Amino acid sequence: MTGDAMDTILAQWARERPDLDCSPMGIIGRISQLQREVHLAQRATFARHGLDAPSFDVLAALRRAGEPYQLTPTALMRTALVTSGAITQRLDRLEEKGLITRERSEADGRAVVVTLTEAGRTALDTALPDHLDTEHGMLAGLSAEEREQLADLLRRFLVALGRVPDRETSEQLGG
Q1: Model's pTM, two decimal places?
Q2: Which domains are delineated in the chain?
C-alpha cells in the first residue's frame, strides 16, 4: 500500500514522542485533508452551474422535500446546521436569483415557507448529475464494498459525536 503525508507525520511523531499515541492524527488529519479536497472539487462543480455549496444545499433540501418543494426557514436551518442569520443570507441570494420564493404559509399566516421555483428546480436538477459524477470520481479508488464500509464507519463516528437529526427535523424533511 502506498503511504501518504500522514504516514510521514505519524512516523515523525513516533520518533520524536514515542510516549504518545498519535494514531488519532492519522484519522483526523486524513479527514481534514479529504474535507479540503471535497470542498475544492464541489466548488468547481457548483461554479459550473452558477451555484455554491450553501446554495446547492438549500435547493437540494427543498427538492428532496418533494411536492410542493416547500420547507420553513427553520427546517432549512436545521438541515444545513447553520444559524438563522446564515440561512437568511442564503435565502436572500437564492431569492434574488429567482431560484426560491418566500411567502406566508396558507396553513398558518404567521409562518413563512420557502418554495423551490421552477428555475430553482431546473438549476438543481442540472447540477445534480455533475455533482454526483464529481463524487463518484473522488471515490473511484474504492470498491463498492469499501465505500459501504467507509460510509458505515463515518456514520458511526458522527453518531458517536451526537450528529443525529432531531425528530422534528426528520419529520419536516420527510424522514
Answers
A1: 0.83
A2: 28-141 (1.10.10.10), 143-174 (no CATH)
